[in-house]
Amino acid sequence: MEFIDKGYFLLLLLLIPYIVWYVKKGRHTMPSLRFSNTSTYNKLPKTIRQRLVWLPDLLRVIAFVAMVCILARPQSHNTWGKRTTEGIDIMLAMDVSTSMLAKDLSPNRIEAAKNVATEFISGRPDDNIGLTIFAGESFTQCPMTTDHQTLINMLQNVRTDIAARGLIEDGTAVGMGLANAVGRLEKSKTKSKIVILLTDGSNNRGDISPITAADIAKSLGIRVYTIGVGTNDIAYYPMTVGGIVQDVKVPVEIDEETLKKIAETTDGHYYRATNTKELKQIYKDIDKLEKTKLEAKKYRKFYDAYLPFAIVAFCMLMLELILRTTVLKREP
Questions:
Q1: pLDDT value at residue 125
Q2: pTM > 0.70: yes or no
Q3: Dihedral (Cα; 9, 15, 17, 23), 10-degree rounding
Q4: Is residue 157 within 8 Å of 198, Cβ to Cβ?
Q5: Which conformational region is residue 171 in: left (phi greater than 0), alpha (psi within -120 to 50 degrees), or beta?
Q6: Which of 31, 50, 52, 97 could form a disulfide with 46 if both were Cys (CB 3.0 to 4.6 A apart)?
Q7: What angle in degrees, to the nearest 10, is found between the helix axes of 256-265 and 210-219?
Q8: Residue 167 carries which DSSP code?
Q9: Are 317 and 59 in contact (CB under 8 A)?
Q10: Quick one: DSSP state of residue 105?
Q11: What is the DSSP pairing of strand 299-304 with strand 222-229?
Q12: How confident is the model at residue 258 (pLDDT cuts 50, 70, 90)?
C-alpha cells in the first residue's frame, strides 16, 4: 500500500497538543461535587464505567488518524515486474532401469539421483526445467516448466519398478533418453539449452544410438552434460534369492567412452560419480553454467484503498457517540 499525498500526515502533529491538553487540563474540566470528607469513598473499588471514562477520547483519536490516512490517498496495486533475470532451459534425462537400485550410492543410486536433482531444481528458480526418464524405452515424465514444485513432486514419484512391472522395457536406452530430451528442447528460443544425462550403464536398447542423438543435439545448439553413476568395480544390488531379498555383488559396467563422446560432441562435459558426495558436487559444477538474460515486462495497476480507513473512522465516531450518550454519559 502506498500513500500519494503523504504531506497530510503532518496533521497528526495536532495530536500532540491535544494529548498534552488532555493530560494536564482535560481531567480538571470534569464535573465534580464537593464533600466535607471523602475518606469514606477512597477505599471504594472503581467501577468499569470509571475505568473506561477515557475510551471515547481514544476512539476520537483513532477516527482522526483514520481520516488523515484518507486525505493522504492510500492506494494498493498489482504489479507485474519488468526485470532482467538469468535462466536457461534444462532437460534432465534420468536412467530408471532396475540397475539403479544398486547401493553403492546412499541409500541407492535412484534415490541419491532424485535427491540431488531436487536440490539442483530448487536452486534454479528462473529456469525452465523438464524431466525425461528412460530404461529400455523413454518418455517425458514432466515437460519443461517453471512450476518447480510440480516438477519435484513428479521427480520424487519416479520408481525403477516401472521396468520390473513390465510397464516399459527394461534395459538402458541412452540414445532414446537423450533424443527424447533433445526433442523437448528443439523449439526452445533461449540461447542456452542443456541436457543433463544420468545413467549407470551402457546403451543396449532403443532405435537411436547415443552418438546419433548427440549429433542431433549439436545441430540444435544443445549442450549435453553426461553423468556416469556407480563405483569403479562392483556394487551391491538387491536380488531375490530363495524367496529372500539379499544384497549381491554385481559388476559395474558404464560405457564411459560413449558418455565422453556425447559430451565432447555437444561441447559439454562428462562426470563420474562413485558416491553421493561426488554426485552433489557434479550438480554444483553444472549449476555454474552460463546463464541467458531473460527480460520480463513490469506493469502496475493502482486501486484506491481508502474504504478500510473510512469504515474505521465511521465506526470509531459512531461508537464514541453511543458511549458518550449511554453508558459513559457524564452528568453535569
A1: 87
A2: no
A3: -160
A4: no
A5: left
A6: 50
A7: 10
A8: S
A9: yes
A10: S
A11: unpaired
A12: very high
Summarised one tens digit per residue, pLDDT across range 201-215 is: 899 999 999 999 999
Alpha-carbon gap, residue 269 to 181, rounded angstroms: 17
User: 264 pLDDT band (50/70/90 cuts)?
Assistant: very high
User: Quick one: pLDDT band at residue 76, thresholds 50, 70, 90?
Assistant: confident
Q: By 3-state DSSP, what share of the chain in percent is helix, strand and coil, each rounded to 5? A: 40, 25, 35
* Per-residue cell: 172: 538402458
Q: Which residues contact 115 (CB under 8 A, 6 or more apart)?
A: none
pLDDT band at 99 (very low <50, low <70, confident <90, very high): very high
Q: How many residues are recorded in the chain?
A: 332
pLDDT band per the 50, 70, 90 thresholds, residue 44: low
What angle separates helix 148-156 from helix 109-122, to the nearest 10 degrees?
Answer: 180
Q: Return all residues near 127 (Cβ < 8 A) that are at least 6 apart.
A: 87, 88, 89, 90, 146
Angle between helices 256-265 and 174-185 (to 10 degrees): 20
- DSSP character at residue 46: P
Rounded average pLDDT over 125-153: 94
Average pLDDT over residues 165-194: 90
* CA dist., res. 247 & res. 268, Å (int): 35
C-alpha cell at 19: 494529548
Q: How far apart are CA 313 and CA 302, in angstroms?
A: 23
Sign of CA dihedral 141, 144, 150, 156: positive
109 vs 44: CA distance, rounded Å = 80
- Among the ranges given (110-114, 212-216, 260-264, 313-317), the one the predictor scored with the smallest mean pLDDT: 313-317
What does the block give as the cell for 169?
522395457
Cell of 196: 543433463
Give the C-alpha distances (Å, rounded to integers) separating 106 from 97, 175, 201, 280, 290.
Answer: 17, 27, 18, 12, 30
